[in-house]
Design brief:
The chain is mostly beta strands. Helix content is about 10%, strand content about 50%. It has a six-stranded antiparallel sheet with strand order 5-4-1-2-3-6.
Length: about 110
């Protein structure tokens, strides 16, 4: 099981084929190898809203910093028989310093480590 050292929530938007809707998301931080950090991003989106917009496996999360991050449905193509809320996830392991981490993820500002 992964051990996150910090979790924080953010407000952004989800973009599916150019159609945008507000969304909340969670970012989880854990130490990577060496001096790097790994950030996991998770959000829940309504299945029907996704299907109506032609969602298949990926969308774009627009974070509160304005970053556009691809998010994915890990269970293959979305199906009308799937649960009502669909989890979309992303992982970023490119942060190599605390400054880089905070620039990319302002959600952690004020979060307790």
């Amino acid at each position: 099981m992964e051990k996150h050292i910090v979790k924080a929530d953010g407000n952004g938007a989800i973009d599916v084929n150019g159609q945008v809707s507000p969304v909340t998301y969670t970012v989880g931080l854990k130490r990577g190898k060496g001096r790097s950090y790994e950030v996991d991003i998770r959000l829940m989106a309504p299945r029907n809203w996704l299907l109506q917009r032609g969602f298949e496996q990926d969308a774009v999360l627009v974070t509160q910093s304005g970053a556009r991050i691809p998010v994915y449905h890990d269970d293959g193509r979305l199906d009308p028989a799937d649960t009502i809320s669909i989890e979309l996830t992303a992982r970023d392991d490119s942060c190599t310093s605390e400054v880089d981490l905070m620039r990319k993820n302002p959600e952690f500002d004020g979060a307790d480590a």
